[in-house]
């Protein structure tokens, strides 16, 4: 196992996020199985929440299917493993309010919980089954106004006055 994955195992043990994953797996009557890079897969998770086909808590990846099918879905497995690393960077469960804040901001901007969510983008949008989405029309118009104002401020003062005279 790579040294960085060993560090991830230890950090997520110490910050309690892996323990939280094991407890949620037990609550969802999932069966724990070892996987590569110090990860655990909790297979056949049975609780209805969250509605995702797989999710991650610390070094535990919880899936509704079985371990082998999950490991074969390489892109999704890599995506969830990146979330495990994010738990280590975010001091464990501190990631949850940060993640939900990012999901809320993404929904406000695009109408989708993943498209602009920094955690999902860094874990690989397509690998996680998310699509990149454009900004909501109102947000895009507001962004265009801000960009125009910023470009205007950067023009030399004389050019700005010329622009006003012409307009
Ligand atoms: Zn994800």
Please give the structural blueprint:
Elements: H1 3-14, H2 17-27, E1 31-34, E2 40-43, E3 54-57, E4 60-63, H3 67-72, H4 74-89, H5 95-110, H6 118-123, H7 137-154, H8 157-166
Parallel strand pairs: 2-4
Antiparallel strand pairs: 1-2, 3-4
The protein binds zinc ion.
Residues 79, 83, 120, 123, 128 line the site of zinc ion.
Provide structural commentary:
This protein has 167 residues and is an alpha+beta fold. The protein has a domain at 3-92. Helix content is 57%, strand content 10%. It contains 8 helices and 4 strands; from the N terminus they run ααββββαααααα. It has helices at residues 3-14, 17-27, 67-72, 74-89, 95-110, 118-123, 137-154, 157-166, and strands at 31-34, 40-43, 54-57, 60-63. The protein has a 4-stranded mixed β-sheet with strand order 1-2-4-3. β3 and β4 (60-63) form a beta hairpin. It starts with a helix and ends with a helix. Bound molecules: zinc ion. Zinc ion binds at residues 79, 83, 120, 123, 128. Residues 79, 83, 120, 123, 128 line the site of zinc ion.
Strand content: 5-15%
- Looking at how many chains there are and whether they match, the oligomeric state comes to single chain
How far is the N terminus from the C terminus? 65 Å
Largest sheet entry:
4 strands, mixed
Total strands: the figure is 4
**H/E element order:** HHEEEEHHHHHH
Low-confidence stretches: none
What's the number of helices?
8
Bound molecules: zinc ion
The helical percent reads 55-70%
Based on CA atoms alone, the radius of gyration comes out at: 21 Å
Mean pLDDT: 93
| Silhouette | elongated
């Amino acid at each position: 196992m790579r040294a960085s994955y060993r560090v991830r195992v230890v950090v997520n043990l110490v910050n309690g996020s892996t323990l939280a994953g094991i407890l949620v797996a037990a609550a969802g009557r999932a069966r724990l199985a070892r996987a590569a890079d110090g990860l655990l897969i909790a297979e056949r998770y049975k609780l209805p929440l969250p509605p995702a086909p797989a999710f991650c808590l610390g070094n535990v990846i919880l899936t509704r299917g079985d371990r082998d099918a999950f490991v074969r879905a390489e892109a999704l497995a890599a995506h969830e493993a990146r979330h495990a690393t994010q738990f280590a960077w975010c001091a464990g469960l501190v990631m949850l309010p940060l993640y939900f804040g990012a999901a809320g901001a993404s929904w406000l901007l695009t109408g989708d919980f993943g498209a602009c969510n920094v955690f999902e983008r860094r874990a690989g949008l397509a690998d996680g089954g998310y699509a990149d989405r454009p900004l909501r029309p109102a947000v895009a118009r507001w962004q265009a106004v801000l960009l125009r104002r910023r470009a205007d401020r950067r023009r030399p003062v004389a050019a700005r006055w010329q622009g006003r005279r012409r307009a």
